[in-house]
Amino acid sequence: MEAKTPGRPPARAEHLERGEHATTTRTGYGSSIAHHGEILQGVFELSPGQLERALVTLPCPLFSAHAVFTPDDSGTLALEPYWKVKARLAAQTTLAAHGLEHKGGRLVVKSEIPIRWGLGSSTSDVIATIIAVADAFSLLLQPEQIASLAVDAEAASDSLMFGDRTVLFAHRRGYVVEELGGPLPPLDVLGFNTDPTGKGVDTVEFAPARYNRSEIEMLQPLPGLLRRALREGDPRGVGRVATASARINQRHLPIPRFDALLALAETVHSVGLQVAHSGTVVGLLFDANDARKSAGIQKARTLLRESGIEQTWHFRT
């Protein structure tokens, strides 16, 4: 499969005109699963001299966020809980984008996603809110529109709104750099948090990674390798890309005992290791169809426990 020509991000107004509008109002509902960091993240040279920050998200259905929006004509927005300010901004942005800035209402956001671990707690809040506000006004938004609104609301967003589509996503500009060719092959993921304090990373304060020329050159072939792995349904290919991206990220947000985790991954027949590039969670990737998978996951749990990591979780892509 040939690489697709990277597109330019559409103008916001043109982007949003594609939504289908209706005048009915009601209580709106929205939800979003979490993610588990990224398979790939970095800076990529789209054409000579044109660099773009982009990522490939690893969705995680274990955790989710839910939003309920009840509109009214007050012109003010009541938020529960009050501290989910990015959700408030997402609601205001969505209303304004559709000429509804004069509307108000009550927004309730509930989430079991741990914060600051790199599981996408704020992105999931934002996406759930955008969907709930759209639902309240019978607005049918495409994933590209939700992506644009999400980046407007929180400055950077993972690509959860694209569902099973695996995309290289410009997370700070809100557009798809490249469709990579379909869903991820079946992977079992054993996740854990490498921060013993549980405090994680404040992404508001965390400065974007400054990749050097050598790192950008190492990142450049990875989307193509991932594209091929998806086309061939190759979990090992996905694992190699994830591990390479995790290695590059070590200079920018080091994972404790990273080399030991790589050795552990090999011992338990994991196909690779992925990380949250702006968080503290790590995932050991296993081929879901490998007969050694269950024993490998159990052994990994034992070895992690012996190293002081007690809490793990397991999901499948």
What does this entry look like structurally?
The protein has 317 residues and is α+β, with helices and mostly antiparallel strands. It folds into two domains: 21-179, Ribosomal Protein S5, domain 2 (2-Layer Sandwich), CATH 3.30.230.10; 187-316, 2-Layer Sandwich (Alpha-Beta Plaits). The chain has helices at residues 12-16, 85-97, 121-136, 143-154, 213-219, 222-232, 235-249, 258-267, 293-306, and strands spanning 28-47, 50-72, 77-80, 104-111, 167-170, 175-179, 187-193, 272-275, 281-287, 312-316. The strands form three sheets. The chain has a four-stranded mixed beta sheet. Strands 8-9-7-10 form a four-stranded antiparallel beta sheet. It has a two-stranded antiparallel sheet with strand order 5-6. Strand 3 (77-80), helix 2 (85-97) and strand 4 (104-111) form a beta-alpha-beta unit. The longest helix has 16 residues, at 121-136. It starts with 11 loop residues before the first helix and ends with a strand. Residues 1-22 have low confidence and may be disordered.
Low-confidence stretches: 1-22
Count every helix, treating DSSP H or I runs of 4 or more residues as helices: 9
On the 0 to 100 scale, the average pLDDT is: 91
Which second-level CATH architecture of the largest domain applies?
2-Layer Sandwich
Q: What is the number of beta strands?
A: 10
Strand order of the largest sheet: 1-2-4-3
Instruction: Characterize the main sheet.
Output: 4 strands, mixed
- The secondary-structure element order is HEEEHEHHEEEHHHHEEHE
Q: Beta-strand percentage?
A: 25-35%
Organism: Cystobacter fuscus
Biased composition (Basic and acidic residues): 1-23
Pfam family, one: GHMP_kinases_N
Protein name: GHMP kinase N-terminal domain-containing protein
